[in-house]
Protein 1
Amino acid sequence: MSQSYDPGAFPPLAVTVDLVLMTVQNGHLAVLLQRRSEAPHKDEWALPGGFVGIDESLDDAAQRILADKAGLKDAWLEQLYSFGDPGRDPRMRIVTIAYFALLPAAELSAPLAARSDLMLAPLDTLPPLAFDHRTIIDHAATRLRGKLDYAPVAFALLPPRFTLRALQDVHEAILGISLNKPAFRRRMIDTGWIEGTGEKESGGAFRPAELYRVKPRAS
Amino acid sequence: MSQSYDPGAFPPLAVTVDLVLMTVQNGHLAVLLQRRSEAPHKDEWALPGGFVGIDESLDDAAQRILADKAGLKDAWLEQLYSFGDPGRDPRMRIVTIAYFALLPAAELSAPLAARSDLMLAPLDTLPPLAFDHRTIIDHAATRLRGKLDYAPVAFALLPPRFTLRALQDVHEAILGISLNKPAFRRRMIDTGWIEGTGEKESGGAFRPAELYRVKPRAS
């Protein structure tokens, strides 16, 4: 920033936040979409989003939009990536900061029931989307899939005690592929993220499986 | 974005790109800083950065600033994170998109020699920095250190053939700690990222070590 800056000399520019709220539903990775009520792209599906207020931090804007648009409070949002191609919004130059969360499907059921402009769309059958929101969703899915191997992200979708089968189901849904059961189990044990509880699942399974839990963090 | 947007109703806002260009020098992780020639924070050290042009993508702005401010062409830059706290710039609301690169020290020697306003500062003895640039550098260092364990990032600082000792030196410099030699070597072999070449280092070492290389990517 070696040059002085005259705000009046710059064309209008805005910053928005868009939310990529994903979950697993019926064995498929899915994302929360909102039907736009106004131009541009009126009636098209889009990510929930909004303009960042002038006195609002990016994180605060993301939490406000999460509450206003998706009816959710205090979800853990991770800043994903910023998208700023000049032509991405027909109104003006708008740079958007995308935030991401992976949420249990149950957390989305109340807003989905309450608001007819929201839907949960499986990633493999997305409708046409407004702006560059398809690119943003693809970016989020790629990062999520990449993270599965080195970060304990899938546990966000599981109860505190879970079977290895349930953990594998989550991984398979996120990756969109089937995994080899013995290799998956060995890999999960090797991560050191989980430990057996010594308890078995209830509910009358013929051969009840052991329940695991996430290990308390060392140090 | 459910509300219509009147650009004139919004106070001025701008988007910048700031570059976090890191390397290892004398066994320490270091970052390229530029002395500011103008207010605000005149004469203070800062990351090289600049305003995003209205018709310029974020990536293009980052490459332009890399060439203009740091004298470097076509380095591989990764978008790191966006910083947008309302008070971070005294002039106006400015959201900055930080980009990151880990470069061999040799690539920085030409711009450092050519420009007296640039310096390479070890992270453990940073001078006071303008704006929130200290926060941005800390964020970059944390991500880089976290990535060492699951991504082949350190090889960017090594020649095509390298000893395991040289690889360990890079990891120790980035992490700022000493590593256990046998455990480090085992872990690096286990990653599957590298393979022995069967050749030994030259240069008259008493016990020349084997040279390794990065494995060609599978699939």
Note: Helices of chain A lie at 58-70, 105-114, 133-147, 164-175, 181-191.
Protein 2
Amino acid sequence: MFLRNSWYVAAWDHEVPAGTILARTFLDEPVVLFRDEAGAPVALEDRCAHRHLPLACGRIVGSTLQCGYHGLVFDRTGLCVRVPGQTQVPPGARIRSYPVVERHRWLWIWMGDPAAADPATIPDYHWNDDPKWVSVGDRFHVKGSYTLIVDNLLDLSHVQYVHGTTLGTDAVVDFPVHVTRHDDRVQIDRWILDNPPPPMFWRAGNLDPAARVDRWQLISFYPPTHVVIDVGCAPAGSGAPHGDRSKGIEMYSNHTITPETKTSSHYFWHHARNFRRDDPAITEFLKKAAGGAFFEDVGIIEAQQASIDTDVEKLPRVDINADAGVIAAQRLLARRIEDEAARR
Amino acid sequence: MFLRNSWYVAAWDHEVPAGTILARTFLDEPVVLFRDEAGAPVALEDRCAHRHLPLACGRIVGSTLQCGYHGLVFDRTGLCVRVPGQTQVPPGARIRSYPVVERHRWLWIWMGDPAAADPATIPDYHWNDDPKWVSVGDRFHVKGSYTLIVDNLLDLSHVQYVHGTTLGTDAVVDFPVHVTRHDDRVQIDRWILDNPPPPMFWRAGNLDPAARVDRWQLISFYPPTHVVIDVGCAPAGSGAPHGDRSKGIEMYSNHTITPETKTSSHYFWHHARNFRRDDPAITEFLKKAAGGAFFEDVGIIEAQQASIDTDVEKLPRVDINADAGVIAAQRLLARRIEDEAARR
Amino acid sequence: MFLRNSWYVAAWDHEVPAGTILARTFLDEPVVLFRDEAGAPVALEDRCAHRHLPLACGRIVGSTLQCGYHGLVFDRTGLCVRVPGQTQVPPGARIRSYPVVERHRWLWIWMGDPAAADPATIPDYHWNDDPKWVSVGDRFHVKGSYTLIVDNLLDLSHVQYVHGTTLGTDAVVDFPVHVTRHDDRVQIDRWILDNPPPPMFWRAGNLDPAARVDRWQLISFYPPTHVVIDVGCAPAGSGAPHGDRSKGIEMYSNHTITPETKTSSHYFWHHARNFRRDDPAITEFLKKAAGGAFFEDVGIIEAQQASIDTDVEKLPRVDINADAGVIAAQRLLARRIEDEAARR
């Protein structure tokens, strides 16, 4: 089940340069993305109304898309505006169009009722294009459900098992999380006090690996699939838990997942820092380190999905204490999906 | 749904040389083709009556086929005539055999009731071995329904979008077709008057690309899947529309599709000309040009089939004027299939 | 359908060296094999109780297995004994464990009720580690049902069609088998008297290819999937049929099949001889010759399975005289499976 009335990331801005057509499936629907003559993104159903050839096999003509089979032309609203060889367009010759907005270096698509699409509700990922931050990011295709990816991001007790050489330290799991349930989000916060920094932190921050730091992992989950993670560390006892981060380093590890099908996903992420911003070596290091760590998660999630797919008995899954945030988030999303179904 | 009581092309003659076994699936049934000692083609079910090993794993013994597992021998009627190690053949030890006839360089198979198989009803493709014509051809395997391939061939308004550099000119779609419905066929004719010839025509016919010609596309559809296309051009105003082709060039672009499964097909075609017959460079050019153009269609059809397969909502398809011939042909075939079902 | 209360071979001993985890599916269940600190084999469900990641993605810790996602630890009984970050293990946190016994160079697993697992019922394959014999063997993965493989082994009339250049001679099928039905096994015996030896025999035994020998194929089938084949030959008339093998050569061609799924299998075999035991060239020759011949069977079985899978009509299979042993074995196995179902 998917939440339909919601903004999802369809693509990075640079994945849809002027003059090219990008085909991608979201929520089980084939979509084609391109830019009109003014450079604004357009999202249409990837299927001609006539004989169902994917429009990705066609070509951009001005601000319209022309099918590559018999030349029917569709405008950005999905209306067929020309049928070669005849003067009238037959009634009903239209395809779905999807609201699409470009913001924070991402193209956001609305897969639900277009009348309900309000760009003001696009989640805040300003770190991705805010000049005060330097952000790196990528997109992974994952053969796993979006729910498994969100679960992964909301329970960071996995970092010492999955990311032992990058993000993890042995101590993470011994510091419990504090979960706060809001109407619009779940907050999952962990403070790891008076401990060594993980490898990625001391390398990026030029810290002493043997130093003692107070480290934070403050996770905000916004349904359906948006995860903003405020991470960083400061010298132990320098006041970070009380708000003074002036002696520390801050990063945002941000993620958003767009379902492709029930069991596959587009996983978009960016990682932003506000220190050593002019050092391209650090930028490159963080892109590789964050991407490498998240790709370790992809391996886990794909193995997990395959295990679930072959489990014909639908065996139960046991919960542990670390799942508190995950469970709160699942409930919030389930409630949203139920509300949406009830309104239909 | 398939029309069973009908001749279909199983293979080119040269695909089944003496001494070799060809396995191919038609109408969802596995079939094995080989030649008997006299060189006559034989078509049997590709499945031993004993333990269902494909007989394609066996060997030809005289005019019979011997299974490669336990040595059972089947004659051209499908009857088991020998079981090694025993003197009696068990009752019921037989497999299906299919009427098969070699004509016009193709092997024709009858997948329906053998008693109804009349070789006189094999469609006329004499251009493929008539000494007055030089014919080139090939076979494509297509991951698409036979109906999509037939639709493609009956509506040539696609040529300017799919074959712009070979068969197409911009004007095709502006000249409407004239559709005639007969009991046994549909005729779909288009005359493109006083226009430049398409690239393949002026290259093959050594014409002036800037010349003005009267060009014809006269399509005969015979159910279930036979399409004979009479194409050519003559100098504009030289009388071709009234029957005088003496100053023009004529070609036959002929096609026949054999369903493999509901969503895959064997696509056989040949392209014949009656001019510059002694020039092997033209023969080679036409083989490459026609094959290249038809392979562009294969790409379209496979994309279209994939689009249809993933359309869980079974969305309707809008018709346009150019579909008149396609729709007439679909109705004629549907009527034949219904008649056949009613008789069973 | 599978017989569950039965020993199956899970792996060769050398496939599970200390410190490594082997993942393999048996009877449609994912299993993970490893060795405890004492070197004893352990078999667990390959699925963490928490979020179903395969435990094959984890690591061995002492005599336990730790999940590679959140670090849950399972002991050899399948009980979760540690959840990082909490002091209590949640009730119900356990996975299946399977009885496993190492014998005759194979690891034997019991997929049924553990209380019924009696190592005394492991079938006798002593030839595989008896110092009086030299044994070679291997494991094949087969995309075919275990029943097809057993059928293949119980009807050796196929050897002259499938293994003409190795195990076969033209005469095999002309010598009928003698089938004896016991409560616990089926015995299928064939004597081929006064005939030339097959190529593998005269090469291994250094015999005259033109010699006349009395040759035996004495097959014992133990349900569900165990096949012991006593093969050999002695000079014609030297008394072998009456028990005097002193002038001949003896080999055991032994097989056991473990279902992976309904249509795929793990096929384990070994081939033992008690002559020319110190000659490594003969050992090497027999490993290649036996393995090569059995691999010919794999090709046949996979083609047969594919043929059965595409047979939507479920066409009947005709039986022949040579199937007497196969049919007796199928009945014995069917009876065991019915008995087991009745007891549940």
Note: Chain C has two domains: 7-121, 126-343.
